[in-house]
Amino acid sequence: MVLALSLVSGFPHRETIVAMAFGVVILSILIQGLTAGPLLRLLRLARRGTKRMAYERARGALLSARAALLALEALPPDGSATPESLAALREQYAEQIRRGEQEVGALLVQTAELREDEEIALHRHLLVVEKEAASDLYRQGVIGSEALAALLSEINTRLLSLEERHRGAKRKESAH
Question: Are 134 and 151 in contact (CB under 8 A)?
C-alpha cells in the first residue's frame, strides 16, 4: 500500500494501482480477522474457555473468601469489633465458602479437563513441597548432601514424568 501511494501523481494507472492495493489490504484484513479465531481453535491453540473462566472465577472467589475468613480469625481481640459483628461476618464468609465449594465442585464434575488440570496442579504443588522438605532436612543436618541430591533427583524425575503425562494427554485430546 505504501509503495502504491508513493508513486508520483503522473505515473500511468496510479489510481488503479492504489485502488487495487487498497482492496488487497482490506480483503487480507477481513479474511485473516474472520478466520484466525476458528483456525486457532481448530489447531487447539486457543479455545472457547467459558467453563475454564467460570471455574477460575469461582475458585478465585472461594480462595478470596477463605483468605478473608483467615484474616478475620487473626484479628486481635482488642475490642475494635463487637463479638456479634465478628460472629455475623464469620457466618457470612462461611456461607460464601460453602457456596464457592459447591460451585467449584459442580464445575469440576462437569468438565473432565478441569478436573485433570486441578489434579495435576495439586500433584505438582505436592512435589514442590517434597523438594522443600528435603532441602529443610539437609539444612537441619538430618540428611547429608548425597541423600539430598538423590531425593531431589527422584522428585525431579517424578515432576518431569507428571509434566510428560500431562502434555501427552493434551496432545491426545487435541488429536480427537
Answer: yes
Number of domains making up the chain: 3
Residue ending a domain, choose from 57, 88, 110: 110
Residues of the domain holding 176:
112-176
For 43-85, how does the pLDDT look when each residue is reduced to its tens digit (9 = 90+)? Answer: 767 665 788 888 889 999 999 999 999 999 988 888 788 889 9
Cβ neighbourhood burial of 26 (10 Å; 0-12, 13-18, 19+): exposed
Q: What does 67-117 look like in DSSP terms, one character per residue?
A: HHHHHHHTS--SSSS-HHHHHHHHHHHHHHHHHHHHHHHHHHHH-HHHHHH
